[in-house]
Amino acid sequence: MAGFRALPSVDQLLGALPALVEDHGRLAVTQAARARLDAARAAIRDGADGGVEAARLPHLLAADLAGLAATRLRPILNLTGTVLHTNLGRAILADQAIAAANAAMAAPLALEYDLATGGRGQRDDHLRGLLCELTGAEDATIVNNNAAAVLIALNSFGLGRDSIVSRGELIEIGGSFRIPDIMARAGTHLVEVGTTNRTHPRDYTDAISDRTGLILKVHTSNYRIEGFTAEVAAPDLAALSRQAGVLMMNDLGAGSLVDLSRWGLRREPTVAEAVTEGADLITFSGDKLLGGPQAGFILGRRDLIAQINRNPMKRALRLDKIRIAALEATLRLYRDPDRLDQRLPVLRMLARPLVDIAAQATRLAPQVAALLPDHRVAVTDCASQIGSGALPTDTIPSAGLRINGDGGDAPDRLAAHLRGLERPVIGHIHAGALILDLRCLGADADLLGALAR
Ligand SMILES: *Cc1c(COP(=O)(O)O)cnc(C)c1O
């Protein structure tokens, strides 16, 4: 039985594996080889055969290095039925936005430089004009995300003062974004008014004092209170605030720039309508219904936006050039609403006709069945969701594949198998089957190719 002497040295091992060195670099292969040789010596000490250990080294090393090289950020197929899935990165960007981001990464650009005068410019200037044009707002500033937009606005106008919110709007948005916590960190004192289901104008007026910084209205994006309810609508709250001489801010959350009913979706108030309603400040996300990269917008009066821009937090929350370029290209698409559903992937997926999705499901069912032996594949109705808190109780009729196997844990095992593919396929489990909602699938070959690997 061979012992330690059957093992090669690190140099011998590297010399025998030139392709690995070429692919991964000498340093990475040396480190992986040392670790594998240590493990082989430990195994031999425990009685393993040196020859067997030595023979296993090349393929173990190759697997280690392949594992280290594989990114966990590789593209997946989102067949969950949730179009804007926060855990899967929300909006897919338009080709125009991807090209703009690429160009911004590859060469210097006049990010904060005025090409006309050669003097200093402002990074937000690339977006302000478009945002004001598309929404009717007087001015705009842009930060890292909508959570940051709410944070900096509260801090700018509520620091050391009261911020008034209805008890029906003290929301939590996934993760750790809770209005009361954000208020505390913004340094503003939360004053809750009304009740969970009903808040009236006098609840607000009774709470207004000389300590009031602002009144905040929050779009209850991820739930809906139904039944015996009352809220003070944004126009009334804006009028009431103006009369009392305090600021009113409206956090829209998803904030769409276009009327979605044009594409058969339920009507949500647009950002432009929120501007008309008279709020002093409006906040919304860049990567929800807008369909761009992660960002947060604050629209409002010029003097208020200037005050936010002077807040030192602005520097900490500002956007980088890559996202500014992608946002500019995304906003530009809204100048041509007629072609928006062809160019903006979020809208293309949301507006995709059911007959189209159903035809794809019918085409794919037998082909997917052929790739998944021991499973039964059938076409099924699905209910897609917008996701990210937009129209939470609304679903959009869709179609997909229902996949069953033998045994109670078959759907979980299949889901795990599909997550482990080179291009992971993510569905959801419902009533004992794995469901693949095809709304967000592009070409048939995308799914067939992923499953064939
Ligand atoms: C989603 C949402 C937020 C947070 O926006 P992000 O862009 O995810 O930071 C804040 N408020 C409301 C009402 C939302 O729906």
UniProtKB/TrEMBL annotation:
InterPro entries: PyrdxlP-dep_Trfase, PyrdxlP-dep_Trfase_major, SelA-like, SelA_trans, SelA_trans_N_dom. Keywords: Cytoplasm, Protein biosynthesis, Pyridoxal phosphate, Selenium, Transferase. It is an enzyme of class 2 (transferase). It is found in: Cytoplasm. Pathway: Aminoacyl-tRNA biosynthesis; selenocysteinyl-tRNA(Sec) biosynthesis; selenocysteinyl-tRNA(Sec) from L-seryl-tRNA(Sec) (bacterial route): step 1/1. Gene3D superfamilies: 3.90.1150.180, Type I PLP-dependent aspartate aminotransferase-like (Major domain) (3.40.640.10). Its cofactor is pyridoxal 5'-phosphate. Its EC number is 2.9.1.1. It catalyses: L-seryl-tRNA(Sec) + selenophosphate + H(+) = L-selenocysteinyl-tRNA(Sec) + phosphate. It comes from the Bacteria. The modification N6-(pyridoxal phosphate)lysine is found at K288. GO terms for molecular function: L-seryl-tRNA(Sec) selenium transferase activity. Residues 4-41 form the L-seryl-tRNA selenium transferase N-terminal domain. PANTHER family: L-SERYL-TRNA(SEC) SELENIUM TRANSFERASE. Converts seryl-tRNA(Sec) to selenocysteinyl-tRNA(Sec) required for selenoprotein biosynthesis. Belongs to the SelA family. This is L-seryl-tRNA(Sec) selenium transferase. The gene is selA.
